[in-house]
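Reviewers of the previous submission asked for a worked example of the structure-prediction workflow described in the proposal, so we include one complete record here. The input consisted solely of the amino acid sequence. No template or homolog information was supplied to the procedure at any stage.
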Amino acid sequence: LEYRLRINTAVFYYDYRDKQLLTRFLDPLWGAVPFLDSAPKSEVKGVEIDIQAAPVSGLFVSFATSYIETEIKEFISTGIDGRSKNFKGNPFNFAPKWEYTLLADYTHALTDTLKWGIGFDYAYTDETNSSLDQLELFAHDDFAILNLRARVSDAAGVWDTTVWVRNATDQFSTLGIFQTSDS
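From that input alone, the workflow returned the following C-alpha cells.
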C-alpha cells in the first residue's frame, strides 16, 4: 500500500507478584485511610491494536483500541469499611476493560502559501471502579469525549493558528472517586 497503512498489535499477559494497588490501612485514630498495598499474586491479560492510515493525500486516520482483563489471585487487605477483606477474584481498581480512540485529520492547500485543516478525535473509556471493593458508590460510568479542531497555517510551517473545542458534546466523566477520613 506504498506505506499508507500501518498496523501495530500486541497480545500480553502479566503474572504479577507484589502488584501495588490502592486499598486501605486501618489507622486507630483516622480509621480506614487510603494506602498502597502489595497484592501477592495478580494477573493481567489483554490485547492492543493500533491502525494508522493515509488513504488519500492530506488525510490521516487512526484507530486504537485496547481490551484488558485484570484479576487479583491472592490478596487480603483492608476494605473501605475498615474490615479485613479477601480481594481474590476482584478486578483491579481504575482498570477499564475497553478503551478506544478514533482520530481523523485533513489538511489541504488554501493558496500557494497557506494551508487549512480540520480534525477530530473521539475517545471512549469503559466503566471501572475506584475501589477494590467494587462498591457502587465508587463506580465510574463509561464515557466518550469528542474534540474538534480547525487550523490555518503557512505552507512553510513557520506559523499555525488553531481553534479547537474540547469535549464538544459536554460529556461528564469521572476519573477518580476517593473517600478520605471523616475525622
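The chain has a mean pLDDT of 93. We consider this example representative of the routine output the project will generate in years two and three.
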